[in-house]
Task: inverse folding
Protein backbone atom coordinates (compact mmCIF):
# COMPACT_ATOMS: atom_id res chain seq x y z
CA UNK A 1 0.00 0.00 0.00
CA UNK A 2 1.50 3.33 -1.02
CA UNK A 3 1.56 6.07 1.59
CA UNK A 4 -1.45 8.39 1.30
CA UNK A 5 -0.62 12.12 1.21
CA UNK A 6 -2.43 12.78 4.51
CA UNK A 7 -2.62 10.44 7.49
CA UNK A 8 -4.06 10.64 10.96
CA UNK A 9 -1.54 8.86 13.14
CA UNK A 10 -2.68 7.15 16.32
CA UNK A 11 -0.79 6.75 19.60
CA UNK A 12 0.26 3.20 18.74
CA UNK A 13 2.40 4.70 15.97
CA UNK A 14 3.40 7.97 17.65
CA UNK A 15 4.72 6.21 20.77
CA UNK A 16 7.16 4.26 18.58
CA UNK A 17 8.92 7.54 17.81
CA UNK A 18 10.05 7.64 21.45
CA UNK A 19 10.52 4.04 22.57
CA UNK A 20 13.24 1.60 21.61
CA UNK A 21 11.65 -1.70 22.58
CA UNK A 22 8.62 -1.68 20.31
CA UNK A 23 8.04 -3.54 17.06
CA UNK A 24 7.88 -1.54 13.82
CA UNK A 25 10.01 1.32 15.19
CA UNK A 26 11.93 1.69 11.93
CA UNK A 27 8.70 1.95 9.95
CA UNK A 28 7.28 4.54 12.36
CA UNK A 29 10.47 6.58 12.14
CA UNK A 30 10.44 6.47 8.34
CA UNK A 31 6.86 7.77 8.40
CA UNK A 32 7.89 10.61 10.70
CA UNK A 33 10.89 11.37 8.47
CA UNK A 34 8.49 11.64 5.51
CA UNK A 35 6.48 14.14 7.58
CA UNK A 36 9.62 16.08 8.55
CA UNK A 37 10.60 16.25 4.86
CA UNK A 38 7.13 17.48 3.82
CA UNK A 39 6.37 14.29 1.86
CA UNK A 40 3.43 13.19 4.02
CA UNK A 41 1.05 15.27 6.13
CA UNK A 42 0.38 13.84 9.59
CA UNK A 43 -2.37 14.90 11.98
CA UNK A 44 -4.04 13.58 15.11
CA UNK A 45 -6.91 14.49 17.41
CA UNK A 46 -5.88 16.57 20.41
CA UNK A 47 -6.22 13.74 22.93
CA UNK A 48 -3.22 11.95 21.41
CA UNK A 49 -1.17 14.18 23.71
CA UNK A 50 -2.64 12.40 26.73
CA UNK A 51 -2.23 8.93 25.24
CA UNK A 52 1.41 9.53 24.34
CA UNK A 53 2.07 11.16 27.74
CA UNK A 54 0.56 8.15 29.52
CA UNK A 55 2.53 5.68 27.40
CA UNK A 56 5.79 7.52 28.10
CA UNK A 57 5.06 7.83 31.82
CA UNK A 58 4.29 4.11 32.02
CA UNK A 59 7.46 3.30 30.05
CA UNK A 60 9.54 5.34 32.49
CA UNK A 61 7.91 3.67 35.52
CA UNK A 62 8.50 0.24 33.99
CA UNK A 63 12.16 1.02 33.24
CA UNK A 64 11.69 0.92 29.46
CA UNK A 65 13.10 4.46 29.23
CA UNK A 66 15.47 6.22 31.60
CA UNK A 67 14.56 8.43 34.55
CA UNK A 68 13.31 11.84 33.45
CA UNK A 69 12.94 10.79 29.83
CA UNK A 70 9.12 10.78 29.81
CA UNK A 71 8.97 14.57 30.13
CA UNK A 72 11.65 15.24 27.54
CA UNK A 73 10.19 12.74 25.06
CA UNK A 74 6.73 14.26 25.51
CA UNK A 75 8.14 17.72 24.81
CA UNK A 76 9.72 16.33 21.65
CA UNK A 77 6.43 14.75 20.58
CA UNK A 78 4.52 17.99 21.19
CA UNK A 79 7.08 19.89 19.10
CA UNK A 80 6.15 17.82 16.02
CA UNK A 81 2.81 19.61 15.87
CA UNK A 82 0.78 16.67 14.58
CA UNK A 83 -2.00 17.13 17.13
CA UNK A 84 -4.91 19.49 16.70
CA UNK A 85 -5.52 21.89 19.55
CA UNK A 86 -9.26 21.17 19.99
CA UNK A 87 -11.60 18.32 19.11
CA UNK A 88 -14.99 19.81 18.39
CA UNK A 89 -18.10 18.61 20.20
CA UNK A 90 -19.42 17.33 16.86
CA UNK A 91 -16.33 15.16 16.37
CA UNK A 92 -16.63 13.71 19.87
CA UNK A 93 -20.34 12.95 19.30
CA UNK A 94 -19.60 11.31 15.95
CA UNK A 95 -16.87 9.22 17.55
CA UNK A 96 -19.25 8.05 20.24
CA UNK A 97 -21.75 6.95 17.57
CA UNK A 98 -19.05 5.16 15.58
CA UNK A 99 -17.78 3.42 18.72
CA UNK A 100 -21.30 2.19 19.40
CA UNK A 101 -21.61 0.84 15.85
CA UNK A 102 -18.23 -0.91 15.78
CA UNK A 103 -17.51 -1.93 19.36
CA UNK A 104 -14.32 0.15 19.29
CA UNK A 105 -13.41 2.55 22.07
CA UNK A 106 -14.45 6.18 21.68
CA UNK A 107 -10.74 7.02 21.70
CA UNK A 108 -10.05 4.77 18.72
CA UNK A 109 -13.14 6.02 16.90
CA UNK A 110 -11.92 9.61 17.37
CA UNK A 111 -8.94 8.91 15.12
CA UNK A 112 -11.24 7.74 12.34
CA UNK A 113 -13.78 10.55 12.73
CA UNK A 114 -10.97 13.11 12.86
CA UNK A 115 -9.49 11.67 9.65
CA UNK A 116 -12.87 11.84 7.94
CA UNK A 117 -13.32 15.48 8.99
CA UNK A 118 -10.00 16.54 7.44
CA UNK A 119 -10.15 14.10 4.51
CA UNK A 120 -7.14 12.05 5.60
CA UNK A 121 -6.73 8.32 6.10
CA UNK A 122 -5.62 6.59 9.32
CA UNK A 123 -2.41 4.71 10.15
CA UNK A 124 -2.18 2.46 13.20
CA UNK A 125 -0.13 -0.40 14.58
CA UNK A 126 -3.27 -1.66 16.34
CA UNK A 127 -4.65 -4.62 14.38
CA UNK A 128 -7.88 -4.62 16.38
CA UNK A 129 -8.56 -0.99 15.49
CA UNK A 130 -7.93 -1.68 11.80
CA UNK A 131 -10.24 -4.68 11.92
CA UNK A 132 -13.02 -2.87 13.81
CA UNK A 133 -12.98 0.10 11.43
CA UNK A 134 -12.75 -1.91 8.22
CA UNK A 135 -15.53 -0.81 5.91
CA UNK A 136 -16.54 2.25 7.93
CA UNK A 137 -15.70 4.92 5.39
CA UNK A 138 -12.19 6.16 6.10
CA UNK A 139 -9.42 3.72 5.17
CA UNK A 140 -7.45 2.52 8.21
CA UNK A 141 -3.99 1.23 7.30
CA UNK A 142 -1.69 -0.90 9.39
CA UNK A 143 1.78 0.61 9.74
CA UNK A 144 3.20 -2.78 8.78
CA UNK A 145 1.45 -2.64 5.39
CA UNK A 146 2.45 0.83 4.19
CA UNK A 147 5.07 0.93 1.43
CA UNK A 148 7.50 3.22 3.24
CA UNK A 149 10.79 2.06 1.72
Result:
Amino acid sequence: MTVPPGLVVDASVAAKWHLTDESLIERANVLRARFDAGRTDLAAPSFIRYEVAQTLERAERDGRIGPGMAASELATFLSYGVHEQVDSDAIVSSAQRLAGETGASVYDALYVVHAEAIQFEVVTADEQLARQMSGHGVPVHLLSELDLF
